[in-house]
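Quick one, T. Sequence first:
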Amino acid sequence: MVMYAQASDVALLDSTELSNRLSEVLRGAMPWLVTISEAEASVPEREGKWSAKQVIGHLIDSAVNNLGRIVRLQIEPGQSLPGYEQMAWVDLQHYAEREWAQVLALWFALNEHVAWTIGRIERGRLGNVGAVAGDSLTLGFLIEDYIAHMQHHLRLMQTWIGKR
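Structure tokens:
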């Protein structure tokens, strides 16, 4: 599993702050994401890379998988949770064939729910430890990394979309 965040001291993490951080990422990205046309969203960054539809589709898949992890690690700490085949998930859900507005709306709605769920985690549970694809981590770090992963993809996408 690729990590995108530096681990914070879990004792200093706050679920409301983490929820707000995710909400800020969503609200910061939507103004420029909605300006991307259907045509622009359909063109891959370059040969062999994803289009904006597929990148946001990947972030939808990340939301689905990580929401399950967030809930499961609250219910039963110590679990070993699987990774997922990211390329296959994007391909099998055919994001490239969906309308850009639909892909974007699903991403936003799912992540609003993820932020809602994160904001209601009892502080002591942020230290719950589990494993994802064999890597041991705390629930707090899982959430921080989830947000950093989203920021990573959005930054890259904003750069290459803006260069067209």
